[in-house]
Amino acid sequence: MSFSRSAGASAPTPGSSPLLAPIKRRSFIKYAGATAGATALTLASCKKDDTTTALLDVGSGDVGVLNYAYALEQLESAFYTQVLAGAYFTSLAVGSAEYQLLSDLALHEKIHVDLLRTALTANSTPIKALSFDFSTISFSDRTTVTGADKMGVLNAAQMFEDLGVAAYNGAARFFSNVDYLGLAGKIVSVEARHAALLRDILVAGGASSLGNGFVGADVIDSSTTSATARMEKSLLPAAVLPKVNAYLATGSQLTAPSLV
Amino acid sequence: MNIFEIISEIEKVDPEVYDRLDSRRSIFKHMSGLGQKLTAAAVPLAFGAVLNKAYAQTTAAPGVVDVLNFALRLEYLESTFYNLGLGTIGATATAAQTTFRSGFSTTNLASLDIIRLDESNHVSALIATITALGGTPIAAPNRTPNALGVTGDFDFTGGKGTGTGPFAGIFTTPATFLAVAQALEDTGVRAYKGGAPYLMSNKDVLTAALNIHSVEARHASRLRTMRRAGAANNTASAVAPTNSGTNEADRSASPKSWISGNDNGGPAPAVTAPVYGAGTAPAYTPTTLSAPVFPAENNVIQGGVTLSATTLTATANFPTLSYSEAFDEPLDVPTVLTIAKTFAVTGSTFFG
Questions:
Q1: Is the pLDDT of residue A205 over 50?
Q2: Å between A80 CA and nearest CA of chain B
Q3: Bigger pLDDT: B108 vs A29
Q4: B125–A231: do the CB atoms touch at under 8 Å?
Q5: Three-class secondary structure of residue A196 per DSSP
Q6: Which SUPFAM superfamilies match (chain B) (predicted)?
Q7: A5-9, A180-184, B157-161, B191-195: which range is least confident on average?
Q8: Which chain A residues are Cβ-neighbours of B234 within 8 angstroms?
Q9: pLDDT higher for A38 or B89?
Q10: What single string gives the DSSP state of each residue in B19-86?
Q11: What's the topology of domain B64-276+331-343?
């Protein structure tokens, strides 16, 4: 199994792929191997209630956090894939601010998904390709229509990006491998940049005198006296997954009993 | 016991001793020259100095408090910057500050005031955390400006105390202010990212640092959006990056809300290029950090894989720049301090 997914396309440069040079210390990938055996993904069936659908366990330790991140990125990426095909996006002028924004976000999230899957595949078994349920999002509406029961595209995008930031920040404590922590750090600040721009758009369009949507009180501790004043409100997996599972199809919903 | 027996003994517990000494070969040469002049008894002393140097620089990784004090230096820099330009929190703005504030749109000014508030609170939070850990927070810098807008420690024009550096007019020209603000926030994001690995021993502190890190990233994004549209634009987010966002040369004046390639060196490439450039792995790397590298922001190698449509097969036809945009890069402590010194007054020791 190779970290590189280019098998059959073109041979990787010798040494460029950590798995082809197993002695290389800087590869963060090799560390996953140590825990891979202990992280066989299981379907945790609920014994108390037969009607409860089985949940997918992301696993424990470094691999568990990577799978958790992989799942979040899959969700974001799948969302943007539908956005790009939806009536709202396809009505935008090519080159308009929101066209460029959503195009970039779709690219970034797809790259995150592919890198995380590649990293996991190298030494472990990534969780499966998830199935989604976006029935509560309207891909033809720019923002949530007042009184409607579906979210608009920009509102949903903001919600997913904010959730990603809170999730990465909250899960970092479960890494034991410093290189994985580093990789997550490289991703989370890009998610925060995404979130800030989306919030900027939504606030500027609705309440221009505020101007503080990018660090709104729903995502930042708005206190100026608490120990966490003006810091991001990070979330542990147990708080994130119910929000994530709302957009995952039956059979793809997640649990993270080891990441506590 | 001669020197080579000593090295041999050390090698039993540290197989890399030759590498450590070899990387400082110039010192070794120096010592051999000394040996001809010094008495035999003095040589072990000189050799001891070499060993101290070899080991001191490779083992003294920053501790949790060291990293927090490092972050505190940067937060003081940022906080002072916004207070000098926009007015000190809680104080009445001076006439000059009031005039300066009128150069920003309503939404932009509100955002800048929020950022000012955030940085001030980050200073307080770091001081509280360092104290709670039993550490000693660094002394506050001199934050009182003279007639040139220069404090005893900071000159935000980059003039080293003259007030006439490359960012002259920093507190009278909104565009210049936003350019420096972007550089400071982007530096902050890289600095926290580079410091995080040294906080893993304390999970709560690590989480707190990351919770500041992402707020800095939100600031940077907002400032970049403002710069893209201009300081006086009230709906900055409606403005697209020029050239469909595909030409890095446009990113100095028209940045995306995230870093694209090296952003062409940032807002003022002659001064800000290091903010987006490569760092240097410090010699004091702990062994848990497996050969850290600090590439420039245009890096496309993640986890040993060169990202492309070949290696990530589901990304066919993606623009080359998108692979760098999807990841921010950390920066090492010494490089960050060197960047921070851009805004230090000559003679100030605040950044070492």
A1: no
A2: 14
A3: B108
A4: yes
A5: helix
A6: Ferritin-like
A7: A5-9
A8: 204, 208
A9: B89
A10: HHHHTTHHHHHHHHHHHHHS-GGGHHHHHHHHHHHHHHHHH----HHHHHHHHHHHHHHHHHHHHHHH
A11: Ferritin (1.20.1260)
Q: A26 vs B244: CB contact, 8 Å cut-off?
A: no
- CB–CB of A247/A75 below 8 Å? yes
- Find, in chain A, the residue whose alpha carbon is nearest to that of B297: A186
Concatenate the DSSP letters of all residues of B229-260 into one string.
H-TT-TTGGGPPPGGGG--GGGGTTS--SS--
- Whether residues A231 and B200 touch (CB distance < 8 A) is answered with no
Region of residue B137 (left: phi > 0; alpha: psi -120 to 50; beta: else): beta
* B211 → closest Cβ in A179, A201, A234: A234
Which residue of chain A comes nearest to B132, CA vs CA?
Answer: A227
Which of chain B's residues have a Cβ under 8 Å away from the Cβ of A186? Answer: 193, 302, 327-330
Please compute the mean of the pLDDT values over residues B214-234 and round it to a whole number: 97
Domain segments of chain A: what residues?
54-255
Token pair in block for residue B224: 């970049």
Phi-psi region of B76 (alpha: psi -120 to 50; beta: other; left: phi over 0): alpha
Distance of CA A59 to the CA centre of its chain: 16
Q: Tens digits of per-residue pLDDT, A43-61?
A: 443 344 444 678 999 999 9
Look at A115 and B312 and tell me if their CB atoms are within 8 Å. Answer: yes
CATH number of the domain located at residue range(s) A54-255 in this protein = 1.20.1260.10
Q: pLDDT value at position B286? A: 52
Measured CA to CA, the distance from residue A64 to residue A236 in angstroms comes to: 13
Spell out the domain ranges in chain B: 3-59, 64-276+331-343
Residue B327: other Cβ atoms inside 10 A: 25
Q: Is the pLDDT assigned to residue A29 strictly greater than 90?
A: no
pLDDT, tens digit (0-9, with 9 covering 90-100), for A90-130: 999 999 999 999 999 999 999 999 999 999 998 788 999 99
Residue in B252, B280, B246, B248 with CA at minimum distance from that of residue B267: B252
**Distance linking the first and last C-alpha atoms of chain A:** 30
Q: Which residues of B fall within a CB distance of 8 Å from A208?
A: 106-107, 234-235
CA distance B98 to chain A (A): 18
Name every chain A residue with its beta carbon within 8 A of the beta carbon of B311: 4-6, 12, 118
Verify whether the Cβ–Cβ distance B326 to A111 is below 8 Å. Answer: yes
Chain A residues within an 8 Å CB radius of B285: none
SS3 at position A30? helix
Residue B285: the pLDDT is: 52
- Which range, of A2-16, A100-114, A172-186, averages the lowest pLDDT? A2-16
Rg, C-alpha atoms of chain B: 23
Q: To the nearest whole number, what is the mean pLDDT of chain B?
A: 86
Minimum-distance CB partner of B325 among A17, A108, A214: A108
pLDDT > 70? residue A198:
yes
Residues of chain A contacting residue B121, judged by C-beta atoms under 8 Å apart:
224, 229-230
Give B58-71 pLDDT, tens digit per residue: 446 789 999 999 99
Q: What share of chain B is helix, strand, coil (3-state, %, to 5)?
A: 55, 0, 40
